[in-house]
Design brief:
Elements lengths: L1 H23 L4 H5 L21 E3 L3 E6 L5 E10 L2 E9 L4 H7 L3 H6 L12 E10 L2 E8 L4 E4 L5 E3 L4 E9 L5 E11 L2 E11 L9 H13 L9 H5 L8 H8 L1 H4 L20 H10 L19 H14 L11
Parallel strand pairs: 2-11
Antiparallel strand pairs: 1-3, 3-9, 4-5, 6-8, 6-10, 7-9, 10-11
The structure holds heme C (HEC) (2 copies).
Length: 333
């Protein structure tokens, strides 16, 4: 009974609104059939949270697990524009109006004193203000939370036509990063903003193992030429892990392999127990030039090594801080 009343009320509302609108605008079909204008996004809502029911995302948070030397992680965010607005529209073929005629004597209509509903029973088209119409959504700005993150999408504003599916790429540069990384991308649309989250689990580097024979052979080669360690197969373990890294991750990749190894040869000294005073210049010099006639290679490109001046400066700065000088510098003259 209650449902029936709501139905009747709704239809009556449509009919009455229709009656008024039809009267005000003699030819409502023109409005409905007008050619769609170029979509001009309204920028006033770009800082409001994006309401539900505007974009249906494949997921707002994406996870990836990558190898230590992956270099970057790539994601695709896919979504469907399901945005709608309520608006006035023309409804034709109004056969249900005859139902109203049948209930005009009900208590409800009597109470509301709507006695002229039957007048509309002959109408063939009416206007209702309760029609949902799909609308475009415009991407106004896209801001990655980190310089390491880049987005791949069309020029902004990017207009997503009503009801369509679209996608864009996000790439995270993982150079110099280890462990769990959480990155964000903030998307501002004309309907509100949304934060997308990327979780990247960088696996620990695979610890290289060598047979005793290989190691002995490597030692012979390094004794003949200490720079051999940067060449051929040797580079797989001694150079590649440091590519694009700076500071601690670089030290862990290219210095620790010799100096922190528990099984290192006796001629490889413990950097935490250096007998002379140390400072940034000390580290810089040792890293850049190593020591001729020893197994300590020269890392600077000028000396045939693999590290840029910036990488060496980052290492010297990091190690000078991480390993305090064990002995006081000699008194100034
Ligand atoms: C599979 C990875 C791997 C490769 C390939 C490799 N090394 Fe090494 N290297 C190591 C590790 C790990 C250490 C640390 C010592 C240890 O625990 O074995 C090391 C240590 C060294 C040392 C210090 C001395 C020592 O044995 O402790 C020298 C010198 C050296 N490598 C030279 C070379 C040369 C030259 C080559 C190429 C012929 C080479 N390495 C190839 C992994 C590798
Ligand atoms: C291939 C193995 C190897 C690698 C890789 C290596 N070193 Fe060395 N390093 C040595 C050896 C061997 C010595 C001893 C040199 C000598 O005979 O005096 C040494 C000596 C040193 C010394 C002098 C220590 C002292 O007691 O005076 C410093 C400092 C040093 N290395 C820093 C580094 C840094 C920083 C890195 C990374 C950029 C690095 N080393 C990479 C083998 C290595």
């Amino acid at each position: 009974m209650k449902l029936q009343r709501i139905f009747v009320c709704g239809v009556a509302g449509i009919v009455l609104a229709g009656g008024r609108l039809l009267a005000a605008d003699g030819n409502p079909t023109n409005a409905a059939a007008a050619t769609a204008a170029v979509y001009v996004p309204d920028t006033s809502h770009q800082n409001d949270p994006l309401p539900d029911g505007v974009l249906a995302w494949n997921s707002l948070t994406q996870d990836a697990t990558v190898a230590a030397d992956a270099g970057n992680a790539h994601f695709v965010f896919s979504f469907t524009n399901i945005a709608t607005v309520h608006e006035t529209a023309l409804v034709t073929n109004v056969t249900t109006v005859t139902n109203i005629t049948a209930v005009t004597n009900s208590f409800f209509f009597w109470f509301k004193k709507i006695s002229s509903v039957t007048n509309f029973s002959t109408a063939t088209s009416i206007t209702t203000n309760n029609v949902t119409k799909p609308v475009p959504v415009a991407f106004l700005e896209v801001h990655p939370g980190c310089q390491c993150t880049t987005t791949e999408l069309p020029p902004l504003p990017w207009i997503i036509p009503a009801g369509t599916n679209a996608q864009f790429g996000v790439a995270v540069n993982l150079a110099g990063r280890t462990g769990m990384q959480v990155k964000t991308v903030n998307v501002k649309t004309d309907k509100g903003f949304k934060q997308l989250i990327l979780k990247i689990n960088i696996l620990p580097p695979v610890v290289p193992t060598q047979s005793d024979a290989d190691r002995a052979h490597a030692l012979e080669m390094a004794k003949a030429d200490r720079q051999t360690v940067f060449q051929g197969d040797c580079a797989t373990c001694h150079v590649k892990p440091g590519t694009g890294k700076y500071g601690k991750p670089l030290s862990d990749a290219v210095c620790a392999i010799c100096h922190e190894s528990k099984t290192r040869a006796s001629m490889v000294p413990d950097l935490h127990n250096i007998k002379t005073p140390t400072n940034v210049d000390f580290w810089q010099t040792w890293i850049a030039h190593g020591k001729a006639g020893s197994l300590m290679p020269a890392f600077s490109t000028a000396d045939g090594g693999p590290l840029s001046d910036m990488q060496i400066a980052s290492l010297a700065g990091y190690l000078n801080m991480a390993i305090p000088s064990q002995t006081a510098p000699p008194p100034a003259q």
